[in-house]
Specification:
There is one protein chain. The protein is of the alpha/beta class. The protein has 2 domains: about 30 residues; about 150 residues, 3-Layer(aba) Sandwich (Rossmann fold). Helices cover about 45% and strands about 15% of the residues. It has 7 helices and 6 strands; from the N terminus they run αβαβαβαβααβαβ. Strands 3-2-4-5-1-6 form a 6-stranded parallel β-sheet, sandwiched between helices. Strand 2, helix 3 and strand 3 form a beta-alpha-beta unit. The longest helix is centred in the first third of the chain and has 24 residues. The radius of gyration is 20 Å and the shape is globular. The relative contact order is 0.20. The structure holds adenosine-5'-triphosphate and magnesium ion. The site of magnesium ion has 4 residues, from helix 2.
Length: about 200
Amino acid sequence: MPEHKHDNHQQRQQKLKQQVDKRIEAAQEERGLLLVITGNGKGKTTSGFGMITRALGHGQTCGVAQFIKGTWDNGEKNLLERLGVPFHVMATGFTWETQDKQKDTEAAQQVWQQCRQLLSDDSIDVVLLDELTYMITYGYIELEEVIQALQHRPREQSVIITGRAAHRQLLELADTVSEVRNVKHGFESGLKARKGIDW
Ligand code: ATP
Ligand code: MG
């Protein structure tokens, strides 16, 4: 590399470092975060569990609630229950076929009550509410109730919400929002969902 180019690069990097350092210095507030992982691509739930793994690795305490049918084989549940992590899933599962709204609401509400407990327990550092967004969209859980519970949670507690089409108010309340975009998915070319990758 010619000498002057090298100098330019170094100057640029130095300037960048100064800017980043400044921003790091400016970040002074310490409290738990609310994160929303949404979008149509694959990687929302696994991102949520990635953070749970991190927290556990630091000796923090976690709780998980999954708003999906709980009778399927579930790799994360198998592992985390062994580690003593509270893990709530819907006992009955959804009744998409029968369109029984009453039953679905009951199933969702049952898990939501357990979420409320997690969200009021200051011994829990990180809470994952997986696929919660749908429950709000379908009206099984009141948005207002969710927002209240999130706002009144312990100051140090972080919460991760995953699911497609997150409500605008959830995005506004969140500190960090990521949208996973679908570029392509093996399913579209006929690949079967795979143990260890998809569940
Ligand atoms: P993952 O649990 O793998 O992180 P996700 O939480 O982002 O995925 P969901 O919308 O919850 O995705 O769907 C869960 C299941 O559907 C997973 O088995 C996942 O591989 C699959 N899936 C996710 N995105 C797509 C997509 N764009 N097309 C087809 N299948 C998908
Ligand atoms: Mg998911």
